[in-house]
Amino acid sequence: MALALALGQRGQGRCWPNPAVGCVLVQSERIVGRGWTQPGGRPHAETVALAQAGQAAEGATAFVSLEPCAHHGKTPPCCDALVAARVGRVVIALRDPDPRVDGGGVARIRAAGIPVTEGVCAAEAEIAHFGFLSRQRRGRPALTLKLAGSFDGRIATASGESRWITGPAARRHVHALRARHDAVMVGGGTARADDPSLTVRDLGMAHQPVRVIVSRRLDLPEDGVMARGAGTAPLWLLHGPDAPADRIARWQNRGARCMVVQPGADRQIDPAACLAALGAAGINSVFCEGGGAFGASLLAAGVVDDLIGYTAGLILGAEGWPGLGAMGISALNQAPRFALVETRALGDDILHHWRRRALSAPT
C-alpha cells in the first residue's frame, strides 16, 4: 500500500477533479501491474495497472489507495474492471466519500465473491488524499499558504526591495510545490505589485496549474506578464459582484475565466467563499503565495490547512515590510496554531512545514 500511495502522488496537480490514486497488483509476491491516475483524471489507476498486468491480474491482490469508483462517467467503473479481471483480493486504504461511490465500489467487489480488506495505511492515505477528501467533505479544496521572508519575518526592505530574500534552492522548491497543486493563488495586491507569472518553470514539465487571482474590482495590470499569458496557462479571476463589466469582458477576451464571489461583512471577498467557488469548479488543492493582507485574511478565516515557510538568514528590522497583514489578535489563544511536520535546509535557507493540528493525526 505504501507503494500505491507513492505512485498516486505522481498524479498530484494533474488529475483534478479526480483524486490522485495509486494501484499495485501483486501476484505470488511479484508486482505484475502498477498505475496512477493519469493527467486529466483518466485513465484511472486501476485501469492502468490492469492493462499492464494483462492475464497476470487473475488471482492477484490489488492494493488501491482509495476505494475503486462505482459510477459510470467518461470511463466504466473501476470496481467492475477489477471484477472482470478476476483479481483474487482487493486491499484499500480509504473509502471514497464521493456520494456516487462511498461504499458502492467495495459492495460490488464483495458481491462478486472477492474479499476486500479496508483501512490499510488509512492515516497516510488521509494526508495523501486530503485535498480531494476536503472537497468532498467540506466543499472546498485544501489550502497551503506559503510565507517566505527574513529571519525577523520581513518580506522587503523599507524601500520595497525584495528580490531575492531567499536563494535559488528555495525558489526551485516553490516551483515544485506549484506543480503538485491544482491551483496557485495570490491576492490582488500581489498581482498589482509584482505582476507574477505564477507558472512552473525550470522543471522540464509542460503542465501548468490553474493560476488564481483574487481581486474584488479586477483592478489588475492589463499589459504585463500575467495578462500576456492569460491564454497560455489557465487563469481564473475571482472578483466581487461590483467588478466593472468592461474589465470582466477584457479579461475574458484574453482567455481568463472570471468567477463572481460574494463579499463578506467587510465588503472584501470572503476567503471561505473563494475556496467554495474553487471547490465547486473541481479544484482539490490550492497553493497560496500571498500577499500579506490576503494571507492574513485566510488565516483569520481559519481556512489554511498547511503552512510552508522559507526563512533566510538575513535581518531587515522593524522598518521592513511584514510578511502578514493585521489579524486583530489581542490574546495568544486567538492565534491559529499549527503542528510542525518538517524542517530542513534548502541551500542557505530553512524550509519549515506546519500543519493545522486537526490534520496532523487523522482518524
UniProtKB/TrEMBL annotation:
PANTHER family: 2,5-DIAMINO-6-RIBOSYLAMINO-4(3H)-PYRIMIDINONE 5'-PHOSPHATE REDUCTASE, DIHYDROFOLATE REDUCTASE FAMILY PROTEIN (AFU_ORTHOLOGUE AFUA_8G06820). Converts 2,5-diamino-6-(ribosylamino)-4(3h)-pyrimidinone 5'-phosphate into 5-amino-6-(ribosylamino)-2,4(1h,3h)-pyrimidinedione 5'-phosphate. Keywords: Hydrolase, Metal-binding, Multifunctional enzyme, NADP, Oxidoreductase, Riboflavin biosynthesis, Zinc. Gene3D superfamilies: Cytidine Deaminase, domain 2, Dihydrofolate Reductase, subunit A. Binds 1 zinc ion. It catalyses: 2,5-diamino-6-hydroxy-4-(5-phosphoribosylamino)-pyrimidine + H2O + H(+) = 5-amino-6-(5-phospho-D-ribosylamino)uracil + NH4(+); 5-amino-6-(5-phospho-D-ribitylamino)uracil + NADP(+) = 5-amino-6-(5-phospho-D-ribosylamino)uracil + NADPH + H(+). It comes from the Bacteria. One of its GO terms (biological process) is riboflavin biosynthetic process. One of its GO terms (molecular function) is 5-amino-6-(5-phosphoribosylamino)uracil reductase activity. Pathway: Cofactor biosynthesis; riboflavin biosynthesis; 5-amino-6-(D-ribitylamino)uracil from GTP: step 3/4; Cofactor biosynthesis; riboflavin biosynthesis; 5-amino-6-(D-ribitylamino)uracil from GTP: step 2/4. NADP(+) binds at A148, W164, T190, D194, G291, G292, A293, F294, G295, A296, S297. Its cofactor is Zn(2+). This is Riboflavin biosynthesis protein RibD. Signal peptide: none annotated. Zn(2+) binds at H44, C69, C78. Residues 1-116 form the CMP/dCMP-type deaminase domain. Its EC number is 3.5.4.26, 1.1.1.193. In the C-terminal section; belongs to the HTP reductase family. Substrate binds at S162, R178, L198, R201, E289. The active site is at E46 (proton donor).
